[in-house]
């Protein structure tokens, strides 16, 4: 009788261990959504450029909805310049599209009557912009919702904003180790910086991460949370490019990145670079874990439950 009880308990234990493995191992596949390409610099004012808003490595994508914002003084587009993708797989149906000032709202999906979603690298929309003036503009994604054919919201792990600009004008932007544009970082991630278009030859320059502000010419760079000095190695004629540079690991908050070309501690609009010069942060470090709090507690507890059970069982068996 006692042996049978132990066997049953062992079976329960095996089941709980299985649950623990499922509980800790269950993470939705890494889904990335954003601009393809993400960075294009050197477009002559008056010339167009095309980007695709793409869901990468997605499974069963049925509907995509999101907003885009940009600097309407630098780049522009119209409803007529927004179309479905053109390289399969792509969502074939644009339901809502609007362009108001520097804001675009998009809802794209599968055609009416179709029940299955699309998988792979799925283009949700193709947008052609025109560069209006010299300078650069971010293209920011907000309120991104991707749904599968069952109407369930997908978990998006990474959003890729865009950065586009003319052949003139200096710039810098937060990026990953490969130079891919990145505006949101997880806690502990190293923030990198890339840039270019600098017109003054500097032997050394300083790069600072500072709390986000809106920048005006001549203002103090203030108190950086991270700073690096770079020996540029710049030779020949301007414009000069900044190599991809590791800035470090800042604590969770919103920051701008200033490239102080003459190392005077002041922001000089004509020569220094800022990501982002406007009220938006150049980049954000998330302060919360990726999982909702409740979920993380369950995941922390999941391996403990069978261990606690095993401990109790051992005590009982020892007592016998
Ligand atoms: Ca300066
Ligand atoms: Ca800013
Ligand atoms: Ca940025």
Describe the structure.
With 320 residues, the protein is an alpha+beta fold. The chain folds into three domains: 2-28 and 292-319; 31-159, Immunoglobulin-like; 170-287, Immunoglobulin-like. Helices cover 15% and strands 43% of the residues. It contains three helices and 20 strands. It has helices at 2-25, 293-301, 304-319, and strands spanning 32-36, 39-43, 48-70, 75-76, 82-83, 93-100, 103-109, 118-131, 136-148, 158-160, 162-166, 171-175, 184-185, 191-198, 204-211, 226-231, 240-248, 253-260, 273-275, 283-285. Strands 1, 2, 3, 4, 5, 6, 7, 8, 9, 10 and 11 form an eleven-stranded mixed beta sheet that branches. Strands 13, 15, 16, 18, 19 and 20 form a six-stranded mixed beta sheet that branches. Strands 12-14-17 form a three-stranded antiparallel beta sheet, with no helix packed on it. β6 (93-100) and β7 form a beta hairpin. α1 (2-25) runs antiparallel to α3. The longest helix is centred in the first third of the chain and has 24 residues, at 2-25. The protein is globular. The two termini are 13 Å apart. The model is unreliable at 11-27 (pLDDT under 50). The structure holds calcium ion (3 copies). One calcium ion (CA) binds next to loops.
Salient structural properties:
320 residues; alpha+beta; Immunoglobulin-like; 11-stranded mixed sheet; 6-stranded mixed sheet; 3 helices; 15% helix; binds calcium ion
Low-confidence stretches: 11-27
Q: What share of the residues lie within helices? A: 10-25%
- For this structure, the quaternary state is single chain
- CATH class categorisation of the largest domain: Mainly Beta
CA radius of gyration is 25 Å
The pLDDT mean sits at 86
Shape: globular
Q: What's the order of the H and E elements? A: HEEEEEEEEEEEEEEEEEEEEHH
Beta-strand share of residues:
35-45%
Give me the secondary-structure category.
alpha+beta
Identify the CATH architecture of the largest domain. Sandwich
Give the number of domains: 3
From the N-terminal CA to the C-terminal CA, the straight-line distance is 13 Å
Catalogue the ligands: calcium ion
CATH overall fold name of the largest domain: Immunoglobulin-like
The number of helical runs is: 3
Largest sheet: number of strands, sense, barrel closure: 11 strands, mixed
Q: Could you give the count of β-strands?
A: 20
